[in-house]
Amino acid sequence: MIPVMEFRQFSEQQPAFRVLKPWWDVFTDYLSVIMLMIGVFGCTLQVMQDKIICLPQRASLSPENTSEVEIKSLLHLQSNASAAPREMTGLKTDLDLQQYSFINQMCYEKALHWYAKYFPYLVLIHTLVFMVCSNFWFKFPGSSSKIEHFISMLGKCFDSPWTTRALSEVSGENPEEKDHKKSGTSRSNIAVSPGEGSLEKTQSLRSIPEKIVVEKPSASVLDKKEGEQAKALFEKVKKFRLHVEEGDILYLMYVRQTVFKVFKFLLIIVYNSCLVNQVRNRVRCEVEIQDMTGYKDFECNHTMAHLFSKLSYCYLCLVAVYGLTSLYTSYWLFYRSLKEYSFEYVRQETGINDIPDVKNDFAFMLHMIDQYDPLYSKRFAVFLSEVSENKLKQLNLNHEWTAEKLRQRLQTNPNNRLELQLFMLPGLPDTVFELTELQSLKLEIINNVTIPASISQLEDLQELSLYQCSLKLHTTATSFLKENLKVLRVKFDDNRELPNWMYGLRNLEELYLTGSLSPDASKNIVLESLREMKCLKTLSLKTNLTKIPQSIVDVSSHLQRLYLQNDGTKLVMLNNLKKMANLIELELVRCDLERIPHAIFSLTSLQELDLKENNLRSIEEILSFQHLRKLTCLKLWYNGIMYIPEHIKKLGSLERLYFSHNKIEILPSHLFLCNKLRYLDLSNNDIRFIPPEIGVLQSLQYFSVTCNKIENLPDELFFCKKLKTLKLGKNSLSILSPKISYLALLTYLDLKGNHFELLPQELGSCRALKRSGLMVEETLFQTLPSDVRDQMKAE
Known about the structure:
By secondary structure, this protein is α/β, with parallel strands linked by helices.
C-alpha cells in the first residue's frame, strides 16, 4: 500500500503556526486525513487487485440477429459439446487466459463508467486540494513572512519575564501586597474550626506552595539583559504593527481559500450525488471482437464495486461535514468585524488603559489567536502599551544610572549650588531622588518626564532647569515644589513644554523662560497670569513679544529684575513698564528699539539698565536719566550710536558705562565728569583721541579702548591710579609712556596689535602685573630688561 505519510508535505506547516489554526481548521485537517486514507486505500486496491472479471454471453440462433459465420461457429461449438463425454459439466468457451485478460481490459475501458474507474483517484486529488488550500496562506510569500514574524514575536512576548511583571505592576498591583493577601488567606484557611470540614483544610494546604512560589525574589526582579530584550521587543512590535496595519492580505487570503473550499465542497457533493449510483457490480459489455474470440456480448463483474460504493457514501458524508464546517467559517468571516480588534476586556482586566485597538491584518491575526487561546492576546497586549513601555524604560534607566554614577556627575553651578545635569535620556532615573544633597536639577531634551512623589526626599532642592522637556508632576511633587522651589528655568518649543504647574509656585523667586510667546492666544503660546507668584523677584523672558504682557504687570509690586531678550522682534508697547516702580535691573536686549523708551524714566528705583543690540542711533533722551538717582550701570553697547551727548555729565551716580561696539568717533570731555565711574568700556568704536580730562576719574578700575584708532595716550590717563585693567590693543599706538609706573595696582594690560618698538622698563614698577596678565607680542616682551622679565614671570 501507499503510505499516507508520503502526502504530509501537502499539509505540513511549522509547529508554531498551530496558534493561528482555530478549531475548525484543526477539525477539517483531521477530516482531510480520513479522506486521504480513503483515497489511498482505494488506489491501492485498484493497483493490487483485478478490476473486473468478464464471461462471454451465448447468443440465440435466430436468422435475424445472427450472421452465417456466427451460425457455423455456434454449430461447430455445439457439435463439439455433444461429442464431449457426459461426465463434464458447464459450458465450454474455448477461450484461453490471454483472451480473458484481453476481454477484461477491453470491457474495463469501454463498458465500465468513468466514475467507477476513477473514484479513488478523484478522492485523492480532491483531498490533496483541500489540504493545500487549508494551508496556502502559510506558504504564500506575501503572507507567510508576516505570519512568521508575528509568531516569532508572539512567542517572545508570551515568555518574556517583563510580561508577567507588567501585568502585576503596571496595572497597579503590588506583588508584595498580593503575597500578603495570599499569606493572610492561607492563615485564615488553616485556622478553621474542626466543624468546618476537611475541604477548607485541603484548600488552605494547597494555597501554601502557591504563596511560596510568588514570594521568590526572582519573580519580580528583572535583570539588565532581560530588560534590554524586552526593550527590543517593544521596538519590534511597534514597527511590525505599523507595517501590518497598512494592508489586509492575510485576511483576503484566508477568505479566498475558505470560499474556494466551500465552492469545491458544493461541486463534489453535486457530481458525486449524481454519479454514485453508477458504481455497480454487474456490467454488460459489448465489444466487436468476434473474429478474435468468437463472442460479442459479455457479462462482467466489477470486483470493487461494492467496496467503492460504500467508500463513496462514506466520502460524501465526510465532505458534507467538511463543507458545513467551511460554511461556518465563512459565516464567522463575513458576519464579524475581523479587521478591527479591541483590547477592551484586557484593559478592564489588567488596568492598563492605554492599550490601543488595532486593525487590518494585525486585528485578524489576533482574532485567530483568540480561537486558540485568549491568553496570548492578553500577554501580547502588554507590548502595545505605552505605559508598559515607559515603565520598562524606567527600569532599564535605573539599572544604567545608579545613585553612585549620578553622584559622580554632581557639579557646582554659577549660583554656587550642587547641580546634576542630565542630557537626552529616555526618562528620569528614580535614583536621582536618592541624592539627598542635590540642590539644583537640570534636565535637557528629555521627553515624557514624570516627577514622582519621591522628589520630596530632596529637601535641599531649590533650583530646577527644564530645557525642551515635557514634564508631568505627581500631586505630592507639585506640593513639594510649591513650597521649596526658588529658581525655575524653562526652555520650550511648544505648549507641552511650558508647564502649567509653574503658575502655582508661590515661593518662586526667579523665573527664566526661553521660547516663543505671544499675547494673542490664537497665534502662539500665551504666558498666563503670574499672580500666584508672590515672592517672584527676577523674571527673564527670551522670546518674541511685541508688547509687555499683562501677566508681568501682575507681579509688578514685588518684581525687582526684568530681562527681556526679544530675538530682534520690535517691542512697540512699553507703557506697562511704568507700573513696575520697584525694578532695580532692566534689560531690553534685541528689541529693535530706535529710541530710549520714555517709560524707563519713570523707574526711579532703577540701578542697572541694559539696552544691548538695538537700533539706537541717538541718545539725546539720556538727559532724562538724571531723574534716576540710583542708576549706577548703563549699558548701551552693540548699537549704532554716533556720538555721546554732553548731557551725560548729569548722570553723576554712574559707576559702570558700556559704549562698546558703536560708531563713536569723538569722546566729549563732559563724559569724564561722571567722576564715580569705575568701569568704562569704549572698545570697538572709531575713537582717535582720548581727552586729558580722563584723569578726573580717580575711581576708574577698568578702562578699555580696544579696536579703535588711537595714536597717543594722554599722560593724565596714568593718574587713574586705581586702574587694574587697561586694554589698549588693536590701535595705532607707537609709544607707551614711562608714567605707566604710576599704575601700581595694574594686573591686566593689553598692548597687542599696536606699533610699539619697545616697552618701557618702568613696567617693572607695576608689581601686580605678571606675564600672564601682559598681553603683548613675545618679541616686544623681550625688549624689557631681563630683571623685569624675570619679575613678571615669577609667580
